[in-house]
Amino acid sequence: MGLLRKAARAMLSLSLATRPAVADTEIDKHSVDVAATARAFAQAAPLAIGDSYDYAPGVQGEADAEGRIGDTDFKLRLFGAWDAQDEERRYADIRQASLHWRHDRLSLGAGVGTFFWGVSESINVVNVLNQADLRQAVDSKEKMGQTFVSLGLRFGNGELSLFYLPTFREREFPERPAFGLPVSQRALFETPDKGGDIALRGLFYAGDLEAGLGYFKGTRRSPLLIRRSPTATEWTPFYIETENLLLDALYLLHEATLKLEAKTGRELDQGFFAANVGIEYPVYSLPGGIQELSLIAEYLVDDRGERAETLGQNDLFIGLRTSFGDIGNSSFRGVVSYDFDSQGNYLDLGLEHRLSDYFRFETRALVFLNAGRDDNWLYPVRNEDFIEFKLHYSF
Predict the structure, then answer these.
(1) Could you report the per-residue pLDDT of 68-111, keeping only the tens digit for each?
(2) Structure pTM?
(3) How far apart are the C-alpha atoms of 146 and 144, rounded to whole Å?
(4) What's the CATH number for 2-394?
(5) Which N-terminal stretch is annotated as signal sequence (predicted)?
């Protein structure tokens, strides 16, 4: 409730400052998506909280709207999910509820937002503002809404943005994915001053180069999972402070696209470096029925070891992305990883097919092929192989 109250106050302050008239409200785009879902795990999770299960039906929905109130733009995106097995996956979240006022090159924003920074296909090391929604996927790509106030300035070949993030959201841990031990709902923090984070981002364009430079200082979104004593029967999330310098860049080199994400900074009084460098190459000689095919290779390095934020720290990712069908109404994405330290790897496959203007079918499989005991990330989730089906109705 505190999050919602602060977001509402921020939006109200902005709306009063710009003095919009309700009669001037225009909705340019709006949509509603409702999906029946079913997630099947390869095996039950006997160490998870409560009763183990290997199949979970459910429903989820999302509503989007964009428009203007007077001379102020607004965006709204609401998400909700219900799971028949897992109480922690019965929730609602405001992904976006923001106002943006623009005058000439200056912009002012406030509310709740979901931001995306980065260019990589596998792991986005510079995407640091939002908390990951682990209830949707263990790879942390889905994000929860974040309260913010922003100030932006556009210039000839880019934009500069300053963010203030007044509140901090803890990560929610569902029954699955299970991490070998239950995860405590009482977290620890390196400092009691959680919230009040700041971020700065500059986006620049120059010919075939697109680059983003950023800075973030505040509480890290990804907690360390620790045992408070050798005999503890649960993990305790421990949120540390972090300071990051960020870089993401995309360069068009003839037919290929070169990608880079990198960050350096300090955590727990130690410096660190993490980067994801990759290449995407389109294939033009395609058989009939395939509209687009791109091959992807990326390498991730993170020298923080057990303190790393993601599923990989010395990993190679090989994958492809394609669209096919008579009118390109189907798409497929597949990525396989390989860890050079532990020889662990996992497979991430996704397929989407549009049945009509209103219905589409989506499936995803996440398979952990090999995870040794020395793999700090894959070994705890080695039993979390699953396949998920979704039937969407959108209008």
Answers:
(1) 998 899 999 999 999 999 999 999 999 999 999 999 999 999 99
(2) 0.87
(3) 7
(4) 2.40.160.10
(5) 1-23
